[in-house]
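Lecture 7 notes: from sequence to structure.
We start with the chain below.
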Amino acid sequence: MGMVTGGELVVRTLLKANVKKIFGLHGAHLETIFQSCLDHHIAITDTRHEVAAGHAAEGYARATRTLGVAMATAGPGFTNIITSIANAFLDRTPVLYISGSSGLGDAETNTLQAGIDQVAIVTPITKWAHRITVPQQIPRLVAQAIRMATSGPMGPVLLDMPADVLSAQVDEDSVQIPEHILLDVVPAPQARSIDKAIQLLASAERPVIMVGVGAYQSGAADELRAFAEATDIPVFSDFQAHGLLPSKHPLYGGTFHKMADLSAPGQRPDVVLALGVRFGLFTLGMSDLVVPLAAKIIHVEIDPKEIGKVRQVALPIVADSRETLTALNARARAQKWPDYAGWQQTVRNAKVERRKRAEADLNRTTGPIHPLQAVSAIVDNIADSTIIIGDGAEAYHWMNEVIRQNHPGSYITHGFLGSVGFGLGLAMGAQVAHPDRPVLCLVGDGAIGFTIAEFDTMVRHNLPIVAVVMNNHSWAASQHFQEIVSGANRLTGVELRDAKYHEVAAAFGCHGQRVTEIKDLGPAIKAAFASRKPACINVAIDLAPLPPELHLLMARH
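Predicted structure tokens for the same chain:
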């Protein structure tokens, strides 16, 4: 018979769920968990701010399609991590958040970092939130939380753990760690639905496949490619599904917003197979710009609440995207498909014309670097295996114009919350998940300021992330919005200084460089990765241009 702490029970349960990496910031409430992680060789990436720990757990989860874990102490530690919880909730990211709290015996005593109901605060932005009050129940409840986070639709959970519950000593023989924590069961489609989907697609003149977060989380890359090649149907992807079909594949049409370029009469999609897609922000809501109102939508979603929520559908299929594609592939081989060569060429022509429009004002030899030139130089000077993090209200929109991803989970950027300042956190999580792959964080000069101290975290944990700051001395999206709706003479609260972000990073021990000419950006990126140190490249870019995607979004206001 041996005695163990509640913190030890937390760690033993996490190990059973194959958790080997945690992100967090120490607080006395969590001490027994930190000590048990040390004993069991679970690596904790300790950040400079709790929100970065939360975002790092998100980045880890999104880069691996597995559970991310973040810890924050009571009171301000907990409140600091709320933005990450909300971000994970809206983007369906499976993260277990562990919050410390004051002891049960300290209730209503006005003690340190107490007096707020942490579970109540996050209940609306989690799949499940619970306060553990009995140490012997820790393994059961941790296992339950993990199952809820990683089961579809995925999302964040929070377990609030009072300090006296975590430090309590219990007989280890009286507590059983669950044997089966992670579930491997996903809903499959009905055979009749598959038959009808095949009929709708085979009768279409201009079909498209749209893949979203559900398709990525289901691991459907091989099945998607097989179906696209069997049918010759073009594929478009949203922010989490980039790379499911490689960008270099001839059937890849681009991001969802690029579907708006298929606007001419007779060139609009008539049947849409939407796999794991959540209609709304990234499909421009209920508008006709991305998905025509007349198009017949086959909506495959694991969450029935999403089907018909924004767009009416011709065929609802409540099922896992990968399972659905497997069933579709079994039927596709026996189906005679139309010749879609002309439709494929239309999609390719639209991509070419869009790029021509974006490049129309690039023929300048003076002035700051055009942001499209900057992101083009980035993708031209990184390895194919690079994971790109996009942060900043305009920066990532420019990257969307040129992104080339040939591996799933390699482009991690903004979601429905529209949170900025999460880039360095996401990048740390992705780098911890894939230590042998290059990680580049594209970030605006506004966004970099949120967590700039995390350059210290990168140095301490040997995370050789290259951050490229798009520096136009402005909260550019806000400035452009004000110019459009209020007038260029009504700017307020949108200007920034030309700060030396690269020198701040260098002061933390990073490689730093300023770039003012486009010819120097490619070599600077290569030199930064070659340094094998965390790096910050501060790039002077032109403020005036507006990303095509953002123009679409702002035009709707």
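Points to note: The mean pLDDT is 93. The first helix runs from residue 6 to 16.
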